[in-house]
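Why show two proteins at once? Because comparison is the fastest way to build intuition. When a single record is shown, students tend to memorize it. When two are placed side by side, the eye starts asking what differs. So, the first record is below.
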Amino acid sequence: MLNQYLNKIERKCRKIAIPNLMLYIVLGMAVVWIADLILSTNPNNNVSLYELISFNRDKILHGEVWRVISFVFMPPSTLFLLIPIILYFYWFMGSSLEYKWGSFKFNVFYFTGIIGCIAAGFIFGFATNYYLDLSLFLAFAILFPNEQLLAFFVIPIKAKWLALIDGIILLYDFIKGSNTIRIFIILSIINIFIFFGKDFFSMIYYMVRRFKFRHIKKIK
């Protein structure tokens, strides 16, 4: 149903899609990362580029409107040497999804995630692109489950198993977190629910049915 609806819209709005969207996102993250490194080398500098582009509802309402979208370009919070590798991985996943779906559908997926993050930001006062980037990986793992990736950049492992680990961590955060965290997670990965929710719940339904069938068979 969703594919049919998107196909109809695509025929009318194909020209407004942004090709190579993930390339621009990753380049933006790289620019922010490098610029912040350069600024940090100046002992007299008190400006944090990360702080300037982060989502802050109060500052947005006081005129710093660029923060509504600039938080998307926040580089991942990780070890210095790993950032270029992770940015490459973001580009690889986004390009793979765009190749599978086409530019328009990938744009819809990614911008839906951004809108969810912005909505969470205005509700709770802050937003992060962490779950948005996670949704990118989950979508990649769903569509390319047997793609070989390197865990810890050494151990080859299929994408579906890495996604399972991330899914367990996400579920743990959802269960153990506050209501604020739960709503924030749901809004931030709403693109996953929209694009894959039906397939996911269908899978759960058939798994439950199979379990019940086997249980009844054993009783008989």
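Second record. Ask yourself what differs from the first in the token line.
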Amino acid sequence: MRRILLLALVLAAGFLAAPANAVQPDEILGDPVLESRARALSAELRCMVCQNQSIDDSDAPLARDLRLIVRERLTAGDSDRQVLDFMVQRYGEFVLLRPRFSWRNALLWGTPVLVLGLGALIAVVALRRRAGDKVERLSPEEEARLARLLAEGKGTDAGKG
């Protein structure tokens, strides 16, 4: 019984780990080279409905339309770059799962580095200030009072024991 349960768990994990391609059989191109290029391009394009899935993984009707456009462009003889450029021209750079680096989106790419650098600078300044804090000595009056309190405390503690 345990072996059957273990086998079922392994199979379930295998199904969950497998990529969920939404490509329908009628979309698949006859040429395996073109189909592999279409799959690679589909993995780079964002489903505009799901937004965090590639069009290769999405079941949305728009994703199907985009997959068909990719395949049409490839069969027409476009290069991979031309297909991506066409999709960006038509839908904007948001259609790319990994946006290209350009001066328009430099702030998007640079903000995490700037935030980390600023945080490190603040931490260094705070640590230097803390290390630079001087311990103030007690004044002679405070030292005398402390000695008196300690002496009084010893006398009362000795009687308790």
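One difference worth noting in the second protein: Confidence is low (pLDDT under 50) at residues 16-20.
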